[in-house]
């Protein structure tokens, strides 16, 4: 046995990587090479709903004792490690266990003893609060915890009482779920002792997925880092997927203990929802869902969780059409109902994307009145401006994903223009006229270009009120939503590359202003990466590898962050969410842009496969659809590209042009012109439309 308390109180640091890690594990082998068809080693989700720590990060005696080998806590083998308490928790020994990645659930400690055992949780070592003054003093009150309570221990606010640790009963699952953590710290609240034989957690993420690792969709490429990013994004959304009665109150009341047992209003309690973050806020947000829903469609295909989340939000609509930004769970502030007008646009986008990916006409019809009311509210705001642009400050609903501007902005007006185009398509699908929506979309796009495009800068302004700032979201959104024509799109993306790209990625804005400071925001960074690849600019892959690859090199090393400060620290320090859904956009982008598979009609009644290879040698994947899986793969051997697709619908295939292009062995393009019907060339690509269901091979040489 190892008497850890004899090590001068310094503790025992053990390897964070499990001894069983082999060369078949891309997450622990830096020399791992991707192999065709072998995507399962990248999956971070467990095979079942029990997870265990993989190593002991540290065992520290402090004023108590740690007797026996701390590694005895890793498996149930009737060998234990003993924690012997001190006068109070400030001197308690600490046993810090590492689950190796972000997990979620109810902890169970197997053992015997009389001491009052507490569990603390943290998503990262940085905010694990080992020292007394860490996390605004949390270390002396709840050692090993990061913070989930906005009023206690928020950055700059003293941590005054333990609102984060969970008191455990031995051999019994924790009463409360901790929705996101990598590190578990066990300590005693006062004298006594506990012999710990094993520690495990009931994995409560994705609870209705019997095998969380059994993805229905997948992605694999020749680039190991891009593969990791795809699966980390998928896992981030899974961590945030949980039963609808496991939300947090929002915001917490002063002194409220950590808990995840609040019901999402209007959600079916027997189904899952998708929260914004596992640890916090742990409620359903419109903007986060806009990123998470497509990830879900393309990975687990857990459509019920999307339906339940979106329905719960739709059912909260106010009589005038305003759509609250988030599920109003628990101790919410009624005054918050009318903030974040931006998120009304995301509700419309969510409904459109749901229709596009599922083709569920009954769902669309059910919520069509809510959609039209939301659009009427948005238009009523625009009607207050003689120049035809929305400004949410006029209705007390300004505010964003990360800043506070209330002006007539490029960003929100671009989102509204897209909504109008989407509504035109939805109306047509329902057999109604979409002309009024389409005409209004054209008017809004013209107003944005007339008032907010800066020709001398070659970029879109933040707003009429702040004309000398050119944010990432304004310019990326203008490209994605079709506000920018090809020339403006190229110039605005070039502006961001020249002025916003910095050490870790692309900053929100190059220079601070009254509403927005420079930081790294995953939401608009996803817009920018998507916009770049969508215009054929493969630097979008550079941005993905730079920013999201950097996140994977930090704790928790398996999920993506809420925001990042310019110095590389989380935006809200110990309160930050490090498994945040709106950061998972690369999973969708890699499937829809690099693999190239996208729906072009509701429910994949038609589709397109147009890969942007970006210097990769190959990519392959599966996309689940209501009509059956689409499988696609492409190979670039340096002399040309070979694309293979199997689908159950009619589609469009496109590959970079070369001297000769064939489809299923028949020449369709030669000498710079089409040699078959339905074949066109544009932007360096050759496209074949009307490709029949079945298996097809398109090749360029």
TrEMBL record:
InterPro entries: 6-hairpin_glycosidase_sf, 6hp_glycosidase-like_sf, Bac_rhamnosid6H, Bac_rhamnosid_C. Residues 596-646 form the Alpha-L-rhamnosidase C-terminal domain. Pfam families: Bac_rhamnosid6H, Bac_rhamnosid_C. Residues 273-495 form the Alpha-L-rhamnosidase six-hairpin glycosidase domain. This is Alpha-L-rhamnosidase C-terminal domain-containing protein.
């Amino acid at each position: 046995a190892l008497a850890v308390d004899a090590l001068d109180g310094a503790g025992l640091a053990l390897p964070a990587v499990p001894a069983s890690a082999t060369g078949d594990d891309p997450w622990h082998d830096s020399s791992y090479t991707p192999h065709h068809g072998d995507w399962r080693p990248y999956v971070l989700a467990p095979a079942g709903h029990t997870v265990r720590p993989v190593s002991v990060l540290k065992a520290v005696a402090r004023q108590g004792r740690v007797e026996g080998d701390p590694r005895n806590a890793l498996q149930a083998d009737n060998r234990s490690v003993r924690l012997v308490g001190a006068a109070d928790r400030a001197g308690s020994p600490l046993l810090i266990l590492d689950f190796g990645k972000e997990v979620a659930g109810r902890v169970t400690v197997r053992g015997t003893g009389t001491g009052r055992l507490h569990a603390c949780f943290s998503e990262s070592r940085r905010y694990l609060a080992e020292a007394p003054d860490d996390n605004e003093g949390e270390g002396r009150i709840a050692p090993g915890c990061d913070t989930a309570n906005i009023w206690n221990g928020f950055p700059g606010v003293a941590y005054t009482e333990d609102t984060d640790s969970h008191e455990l009963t031995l051999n019994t699952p924790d009463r409360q779920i901790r929705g996101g953590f990598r590190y578990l710290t066990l300590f005693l609240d006062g004298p006594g002792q506990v012999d710990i034989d094993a520690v495990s957690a009931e994995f409560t993420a994705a609870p209705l997925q019997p095998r969380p690792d059994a993805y229905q969709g997948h992605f694999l490429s020749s680039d190991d880092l891009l593969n990791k990013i795809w699966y980390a994004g998928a896992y981030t959304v899974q961590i945030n997927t949980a039963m609808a009665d496991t939300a947090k109150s929002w915001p917490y009341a002063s002194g409220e203990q950590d808990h995840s047992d609040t019901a999402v209003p209007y959600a079916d309690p027997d189904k899952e929802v998708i929260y914004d973050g596992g640890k916090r806020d742990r409620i359903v947000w419109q903007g986060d869902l806009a990123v998470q829903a497509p990830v879900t469609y393309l990975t687990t295909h857990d459509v019920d969780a999307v339906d339940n989340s979106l329905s719960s939000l739709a059912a909260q609509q106010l009589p005038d059409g305003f759509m609250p930004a988030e599920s109003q769970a628990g101790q919410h502030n009624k005054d918050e109902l009318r903030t974040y007008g931006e998120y009304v646009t995301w509700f419309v986008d969510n409904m459109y994307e749901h229709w596009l990916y599922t083709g569920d006409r009954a769902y669309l019809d059910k919520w069509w009145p809510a959609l039209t009311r939301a659009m009427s509210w948005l238009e009523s705001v625009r009607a207050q401006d003689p120049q035809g642009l929305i400004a949410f400050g006029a209705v007390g609903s300004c505010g964003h994903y990360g800043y506070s501007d209330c002006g007539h902005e490029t960003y929100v007006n671009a989102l509204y223009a897209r909504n109008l185009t989407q509504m035109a398509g939805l109306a047509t699908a329902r057999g109604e006229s979409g002309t009024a929506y389409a005409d209004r979309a054209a008017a809004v796009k013209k107003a944005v270009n007339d008032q907010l495009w800066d020709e001398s800068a070659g970029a879109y302004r933040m707003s009429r009120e702040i004309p000398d700032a050119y944010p990432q979201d304004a310019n990326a959104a203008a490209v994605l939503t079709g506000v920018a024509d090809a020339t403006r799109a190229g110039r605005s993306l070039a502006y961001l590359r020249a002025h916003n790209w910095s050490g870790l990625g692309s900053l929100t804005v190059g220079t601070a202003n009254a509403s927005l400071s420079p930081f790294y925001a995953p939401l608009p960074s996803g817009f920018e990466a998507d916009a770049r690849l969508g215009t054929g600019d493969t630097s979008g892959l550079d941005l993905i590898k730079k920013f999201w690859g950097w996140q994977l090199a930090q704790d928790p090393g398996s999920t993506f962050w809420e925001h990042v400060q310019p110095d590389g620290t989380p935006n809200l320090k110990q309160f930050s969410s490090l498994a945040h859904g709106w950061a998972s956009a690369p999973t969708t982008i890699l499937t829809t842009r690099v693999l190239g598979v996208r729906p072009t009609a509701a429910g994949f009644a038609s589709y397109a496969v147009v890969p942007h290879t970006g210097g990769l040698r190959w990519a392959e994947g599966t996309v689940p659809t209501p009509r059956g899986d689409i499988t696609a793969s492409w190979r670039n051997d340096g002399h040309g590209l070979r694309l293979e697709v199997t689908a159950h619908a009619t589609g469009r295939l496109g590959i970079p042009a070369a001297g000769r292009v064939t489809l299923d062995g028949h020449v369709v393009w030669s000498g710079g012109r089409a040699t078959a019907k339905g074949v066109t060339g544009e932007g360096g690509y050759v496209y074949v439309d009307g490709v029949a269901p079945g298996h097809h091979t398109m090749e360029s040489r």
